[in-house]
Write a structure and sequence with these properties.
It is a single chain. The chain is mainly beta. It has one domain: Outer membrane protein transport protein (OMPP1/FadL/TodX) (Porin), CATH 2.40.160. Helices cover about 5% and strands about 55% of the residues. The protein has 3 helices and 22 strands. It has helices at about 10-20, 40-45, 55-60; strands spanning about 5-10, 70-85, 95, 100-110, 115-125, 130, 145-160, 165-180, 195-215, 220-225, 230-240, 245, 250-255, 260-265, 270-280, 285-290, 300, 305-315, 320-330, 350-360, 365-380, 395-410. Strand 20 and strand 21 (about 365-380) form a beta hairpin.
Length: about 400
C-alpha cells in the first residue's frame, strides 16, 4: 500500500461535509451495456439470440456455435459517435465533450468432426464508454467526467444433444477500469477543486445458452449472462483550496445479470425474421461505497431500475453468399429522475440499423450502420448537491455507429 498524502490548512470536517453532501456522490461513467458485438447481429437490431450462426454467438447465445463447422474466427470493431446535449433550467446549452469511441471484438470457435461438441473463446467489451461535461454546466458538483473500460474473456463449450437441442456454458473473466470525477464546491477564482476515484479490478462470472429447433423453419434461443462483482482498487485524489489528499481507495461494484429470449422464423430459406426480449437487472445497482481512509467514505447512489430492450430483425439472403439486413430496437430508460446521472444521460431510445454482408467458402465480412435517437427527456426533482446544484434540465440523445466485422473459415 502506498502512503497517504494529505496537505491541509482547511478543517477536515468541512471537506468531509463536501464529500458526503451530494446524495448522488459521484456518478458512473456511462455504465450502460454495449450489446453491439457483431456487424451482422447489429444490422438485425441485435435480434440474434435464436439465429446465433456465426462465432459471435459466444456473446449472443453460446449454444449457437454447435451450428458451425471446423474452425472459424471473427473480428470486428464498433465505431460510435455520441451526441448528448443538455439544456439547464437557466437556458444554458451544453454538449458531451467525449463523443468518439471505438470498441473491438474477437471470437474463435472449433467444432469437432466426430463429436457433438464445440468450443469457443471470445474477447469483447459488454460495458463501457465515457462522458465529459463542461465545468459551467450547472451540475459540476454532481458530475464532470468519467470513464469505464470493461473487457471480458469468455471461454465456452457447447453440446449438440440432438438435431433439435443444444446447450452451452462458459466462464467470463471480467476486467474493469474506471475514472470518475466531480467538483466539490462552487469554483473559486485562482483555485480548483475536484474529487476523483481511479480504480481497477477483476471479477468472475458465467454465461449459458440454449437453442431449440422444433421444426426447420422455427428456432428458439435463450442467452443468460450472470451478475458479476468487481472489487475496484486504486486511489482517490481530493483537491480544494488549501487542501489535498491522495489516499488508497477501494469499492465493490456490482454489474447486472442479463437474460435474452429470442425466436427466429424462416418462412423460406431466403428469409430470417427474429424478435428478442432482452432484460437487464439494473436493480442490482444501488449504492456503491468508495472507502478512502482516513477520509470519510464517498457514496455513489444509483438506484437504477431493471429495463428491457425490444429487438426486431430481418435478413434477406441473396445469391452468391450475399445478404442484406435491417433492424429496430426500443430501449427503456433505467435511471429515475430522483437519482439522475448526467454522465449516463439515460432516456427511452430508438435504434434503427441496416447492413449487408458476404460469406464465401472461407472469407466473409459484414458492414452495418446504426442510428440512435432519444426524444428529449426533462428531468425534474433530482437530488441536489451541497451548494444546491441538480441534474435538472432537458437531455437529448443522438448516436451514429458503424460496425465492420471480418471472418475466416479454416
Amino acid at each position: 500500500m502506498k502512503s497517504t498524502r494529505i496537505e491541509t490548512r482547511r478543517p477536515v470536517p468541512i471537506l468531509a461535509a463536501l464529500l458526503l453532501s451530494s446524495p448522488a456522490g459521484i456518478t458512473l461513467a456511462s455504465g450502460f451495456r454495449l450489446p453491439d458485438q457483431d456487424a451482422f447481429a447489429t444490422a438485425r437490431g441485435e435480434a440474434f439470440a435464436a439465429t446465433a450462426d456465426n462465432p459471435s454467438a459466444i456473446y449472443y447465445n453460446p449454444a449457437g456455435i454447435t451450428q458451425l463447422s471446423g474452425q472459424q474466427i471473427r473480428a470486428g470493431v464498433y465505431g460510435l459517435k455520441l451526441n448528448v446535449s443538455y439544456e439547464n433550467p437557466q437556458g444554458g446549452q451544453f454538449n458531451n465533450e467525449k463523443d468518439l469511441h471505438a470498441v473491438p471484438q474477437l471470437f474463435y470457435t472449433y467444432s469437432a468432426e466426430k463429436l457433438p461438441v464445440s468450443f469457443g473463446f471470445g474477447v469483447y467489451s459488454p460495458y463501457g464508454l465515457s462522458s465529459e461535461w463542461s465545468e459551467d454546466s450547472g451540475f459540476r458538483t454532481i458530475a464532470t467526467q468519467g470513464r469505464l473500460t470493461y473487457f471480458t474473456a469468455n471461454p465456452v463449450v457447447a453440446w449438440k444433444i440432438n438435431e433439435e437441442w443444444s446447450i452451452a456454458g462458459g466462464m467470463t473473466i471480467n476486467y474493469a477500469d474506471t475514472d470518475l470525477q466531480r467538483g466539490l464546491a462552487a469554483p473559486v477564482p485562482g483555485y480548483g477543486d475536484n474529487f476523483q476515484f481511479d480504480g481497477n479490478g477483476v471479477g468472475l462470472g458465467f454465461n449459458a445458452g440454449l437453442l431449440w429447433k422444433p421444426i426447420p423453419q422455427l428456432q428458439f434461443g435463450i442467452n443468460y449472462r450472470s451478475a458479476t462483482t468487481v472489487d475496484l482498487t486504486g486511489s482517490t485524489d481530493v483537491t480544494a483550496p488549501d487542501f489535498s489528499a491522495n489516499p488508497d481507495a477501494w469499492a465493490e461494484f456490482k454489474f447486472p445479470q442479463n437474460i435474452v429470449f429470442g425466436v427466429s422464423w424462416r418462412p423460406t430459406s431466403a428469409w430470417n425474421l427474429e424478435f428478442n426480449l432482452d432484460w437487464t437487472d439494473w436493480n442490482r445497482l444501488n449504492t456503491v461505497t468508495i472507502h478512502q481512509p482516513p477520509l470519510p467514505d464517498a457514496n455513489l447512489v444509483l438506484n437504477w431500475q431493471s429495463s428491457f430492450y425490444y429487438e426486431f430483425g430481418v435478413t434477406r439472403y441473396l445469391a452468391n453468399g450475399w445478404s442484406v439486413s435491417g433492424g429496430y430496437i426500443f430501449n427503456e430508460n433505467s435511471v429515475p429522475d430522483s437519482d439522475y446521472q448526467p454522465l449516463v444521460a439515460d432516456e427511452n431510445r430508438h435504434f434503427m440499423s441496416v447492413g449487408f454482408g458476404y460469406q464465401g467458402s472461407h472469407f466473409g465480412f459484414d458492414l452495418a450502420y446504426q442510428f440512435g435517437y432519444g426524444p428529449s427527456r426533462t428531468v425534474v426533482g433530482s437530488a441536489p448537491s451541497a451548494i444546491g446544484q441538480t441534474a435538472d434540465g432537458t437531455y437529448k440523445f443522438v448516436s451514429n455507429a458503424i460496425l465492420a466485422t471480418f471472418g475466416w473459415r479454416f
